[in-house]
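User: Here's a structure from my thesis project, written as structure tokens. My advisor, Dr. K., wants to see whether a designed sequence matches the one we expressed. Can you design one independently, without my sequence as a hint?
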């Protein structure tokens, strides 16, 4: 088998390409940030063309680091920010509007409108999701309703929709010249347009939202050969795995058995528990979603607790308030005080997600006195992440009837020892973090590797690598 696997990790703030060897060791990595566009309060956009340029740049840079050629890659996987919505022209490849990011709240009026008949949970039985600003479906509708000519073009079959995975795959495999238009079940499950039982687009919901089915990608498994890249840095390499970023982290943490869970600390926090091949319908404000589907095997489902703002709060303190220069400096600032000084953050910048699902919530800082200083604000910001996680853990234990004995963690914020220690203290369970922190990209690479030759050998090496990657935080 060819020695290396590649993973495109397209996140909320940056795009990375990582090359792994058979043992899961990183041999090349390149990363580029892209602009966050805030045109109005509650609106968050990305430029899809910029994301595509950054993808090509990181592909080229990482391949050059080790003088790799496309034939050195057994396969490439894609993992991506979920729910972020792109609509583009089938013939030109040009987006009709900026990508509407998962954090964006512009469709709050539509959420209220569709909730009037049947309530916020009117589509939960089919999709596992409440009506919320979070998901892709109403974002598609907003573009069709608000961009001149978009609806007419979509109904004429001239426009395509995709989350970022679909957009990148289409561009990588030729774009207007034969690009492959598909998505995997994990990303499809985040649109609020896929039926969890059939794993197909739900025509009743499409009709309700007035979204033409012709613009939607074909739904596939998370691990199969989708096509070959035509983009020069990796031309000829097989694209063979797609997982939404949080599902990729679940796979990357080797949570293959029911009851195993992980929490990713990134822009937001996302706690997923593997529920096996049986769906668990949440009664406590969580989401039911697809965990993964490997080839022809049955889909595995997950319960998910999504928190919109965690790492983004650190960025806000850095960029908007100027409390420190680099995100990692928040730990030093937070350690400058012995406690939070009775200051508490509720960072509802994009409303509150699980378990509350309140689109009209907004951020507050409570408990301020003359005693409070920037150290207390920093500490309260970190503690807000841990408190929100505890809310989700409690809801997940009630839904699953499984008591978590450990919490596996990953994401950029796990480098923060103060946060991880406070998280363990507030949950009163051990928190496990990986020494090799690129579990999301590793999950995508794993899915890609399973779709090509060497499946069992790769899986054995993977299990060995995962075992060696964990350490404990008491």
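Assistant: Designed independently from the structure alone:
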């Amino acid at each position: 088998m060819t020695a290396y696997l590649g993973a495109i990790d397209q996140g909320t703030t940056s795009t990375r390409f990582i090359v792994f060897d058979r043992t899961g060791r990183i041999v090349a990595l390149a990363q580029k940030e892209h602009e966050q566009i805030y045109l109005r309060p509650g609106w968050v956009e990305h430029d899809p063309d910029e994301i595509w340029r950054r993808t090509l740049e990181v592909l080229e840079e990482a391949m050059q680091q080790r003088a790799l050629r496309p034939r050195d890659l057994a396969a490439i996987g894609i993992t991506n920010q979920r729910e972020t919505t792109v609509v583009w022209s089938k013939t030109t490849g040009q987006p009709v509007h900026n990508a509407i990011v998962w954090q964006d709240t512009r469709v709050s009026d539509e959420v209220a409108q569709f909730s009037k008949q049947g309530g916020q949970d009117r589509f939960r039985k089919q999709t596992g999701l409440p009506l919320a600003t979070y998901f892709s479906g109403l974002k598609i509708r907003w573009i069709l309703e608000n961009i001149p000519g978009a609806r007419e073009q979509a109904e004429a079959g001239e426009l395509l929709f995709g989350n970022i995975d679909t957009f990148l795959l289409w561009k990588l495999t030729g774009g207007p010249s034969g690009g492959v238009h598909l998505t995997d079940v994990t990303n499809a499950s985040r649109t609020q347009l896929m039926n969890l039982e059939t794993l197909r687009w739900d025509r009743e919901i499409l009709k309700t939202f007035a979204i033409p089915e012709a613009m939607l990608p074909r739904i596939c498994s998370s691990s199969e050969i989708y096509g070959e890249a035509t983009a020069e840095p990796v031309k000829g390499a097989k694209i063979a795995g797609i997982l939404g970023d949080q599902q990729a982290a679940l796979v990357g943490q080797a949570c293959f058995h029911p009851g195993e869970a992980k929490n990713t600390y990134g822009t937001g926090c996302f706690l997923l528990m593997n529920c096996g091949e049986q769906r668990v319908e949440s009664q406590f404000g969580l989401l039911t979603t697809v965990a993964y589907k490997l080839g022809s095997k049955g889909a595995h489902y997950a319960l998910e607790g999504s928190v919109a703002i965690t790492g983004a709060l650190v960025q806000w303190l850095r960029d908007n308030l100027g409390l420190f220069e680099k995100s990692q400096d928040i730990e030093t600032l937070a350690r400058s005080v012995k406690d939070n000084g009775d200051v508490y953050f509720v960072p509802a910048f994009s409303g509150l997600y699980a378990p509350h699902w309140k689109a009209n919530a907004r951020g507050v800082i409570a408990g301020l006195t003359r005693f409070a200083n920037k150290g207390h604000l920093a500490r309260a910001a970190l503690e807000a992440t841990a408190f929100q996680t505890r809310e989700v853990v409690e809801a997940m234990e009630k839904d699953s009837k499984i008591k978590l004995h450990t919490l596996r963690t990953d994401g950029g914020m796990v480098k923060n020892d103060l946060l991880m220690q406070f998280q363990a203290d507030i949950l009163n369970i051990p928190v496990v973090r990986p020494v090799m922190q690129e579990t999301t990209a590793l999950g995508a690479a794993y899915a890609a590797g399973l779709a090509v030759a060497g499946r069992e050998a790769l899986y054995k090496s993977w299990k060995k690598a995962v075992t060696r990657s964990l350490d404990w935080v008491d």
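When you compare it with your expressed construct, this may help: The first strand starts at residue 4 and ends at 10.
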